[in-house]
Design a protein that fits this description.
- It is a single chain.
- This protein is α+β, with helices and mostly antiparallel strands.
- The protein has 7 helices and 26 strands.
- It has a 7-stranded mixed beta sheet, with helices on one face.
- The longest helix is centred in the middle third of the chain and has 21 residues.
């Protein structure tokens, strides 16, 4: 299993991969030009034991040029090398493109989650000029079964091979709470300034600059309803610190700030009123987004699509699941709120949800969103396996 993740900027690329634990602990990556001519070797580090019999390795490629095709290979002993994989860097100016997904939530006993995710992954691979993918959490379904990490779900997630060619920027979902998330991805600019008592809740927050967008990944998938208000306040305060650190590091270099996290505060399905989400809001999550000048917040968790009108300058997107594992009903009272601009297509009436509220069954179709960037214009188009733009298509400008 091998995955690219963005580096701190487009001049860098991070790599993480697994190898058998007895195959060495010397993590190295070779960089080649598009024709296969050797450029250099970069040394990384083994992250230690992962799942039973496996070791996690990480390395970084640096000094990359924008808008350039490269090849790379990796080794865990400096002797035997993987095959050469291709990747491309985005342009440093002008038009470019990325794709946003959420909740593949690969479940071992759900064959439809495996096949539908493979279809979506192949659709993304076939989309021209995708610079990287963002994922708003719940990559797999159950990290632990009887106390044992469920690596088979990760294998199925990685099986289409998309992450070895297109960098992936994931955030933790509530189903990703295990060490395997950290073993499988080599995140840039991780920030954890929490006190020791809250450090677990503040891990896996990070940021990176791609062309003219400052991306900030926040871990909203760790806290549960039983956590104290003080813990929620500490985590929300830390989110603000992470965004501030990102803005300071790249001051004057970006036109847009996009925040990626998991537990949407502006959904139109049942999770929108979960206790932990109510607590995030009560402790100032949305206040932080607006006060920090965030333009777009991309989340998931509810397996439904929803877009808000700008709220204090911020557009909130809740992304539908990227596999066919499960979908939740659309609650009419939430979908018809004044600030909701668009939501998933209903396929039929459904009298009531489990709290007795009128709701609709949505179309059971996984989705991904293509975002075309051109300076101070962002074009969003939501795609399924069969069409693009049917669920939603919109433009943001500055």
């Amino acid at each position: 299993m091998l995955a690219l993740t963005p580096g701190a900027t487009i001049t860098e690329l991070n790599i993480a991969w697994y190898a058998d634990s007895d195959k060495g602990s010397k993590s190295e990556a070779r960089l080649f030009d598009a024709n296969g001519t050797y450029i250099k070797t970069e040394s990384g580090a083994s992250a230690g034991s992962a799942s039973t019999g496996k070791r996690s390795h990480k390395a970084k490629l640096t000094g990359l040029s924008p808008n350039t095709k490269y090849k790379y290979s990796v080794s865990n002993d400096g002797l035997d090398w993987s095959k050469e994989y291709e990747f491309s860097t985005p342009p440093s100016t002008g038009a470019w493109r990325f794709v946003a997904i959420s909740d593949p939530q690969i479940r071992l006993d759900s064959v439809k989650s495996h096949s539908s995710w493979a279809e979506i992954a192949n659709k993304i691979k076939a989309t021209p000029n995708v610079s990287h993918i963002t994922c708003s959490g719940d990559l797999v379904d159950e990290m632990f079964a009887s106390g044992t990490p469920n690596e088979r779900e990760w294998e199925i997630l990685f099986n289409p091979g998309i992450f070895s060619n297109i960098p992936m920027a994931p955030v933790k979902g509530n189903h990703d709470n295990g060490n395997q998330f950290g073993y499988h991805f080599n995140l840039p600019n991780k920030v954890n300034k929490c006190s020791s008592s809250n450090s677990y809740y503040c891990d896996y927050n990070y940021y990176y600059l791609y062309n003219n967008i400052l991306f900030v990944g926040l871990n909203s998938g760790t806290l549960y309803e039983g956590s104290s208000d003080a813990n929620f306040k500490a985590v929300v305060d830390h989110f603000s610190e992470v965004i501030s650190a990102a803005k300071t590091a790249h001051a004057g270099k970006y036109d847009w700030i996009i925040v990626l996290h998991h537990e949407s505060t502006k959904s139109v399905s049942a999770h929108a009123e979960d206790v932990e989400i109510v607590k995030y809001k009560a402790q100032g999550f949305e206040t932080v987004m607006s006060s920090q000048g965030v333009d777009v917040v991309i989340a998931g968790h509810d397996h439904v699509y929803a877009r808000t009108k700008p709220i204090n300058g911020v557009v909130y997107l809740t992304l539908k699941a990227a596999s066919n594992y499960k979908f939740y009903p659309i609650i009419e009272a939430l979908a018809t709120q004044d600030f909701i601009a668009k939501y998933s297509k209903p396929q039929s009436s459904y009298k009531f949800d489990w709290e007795g509220r009128p709701s609709w069954i949505q179309v059971f179709e996984p989705e991904y969103t293509v975002i075309d960037v051109n300076g101070r214009t962002l074009n969003f188009e939501v795609c399924t396996r069969t069409e693009c733009g049917g669920t939603d298509k919109f433009t943001l400008t500055k």
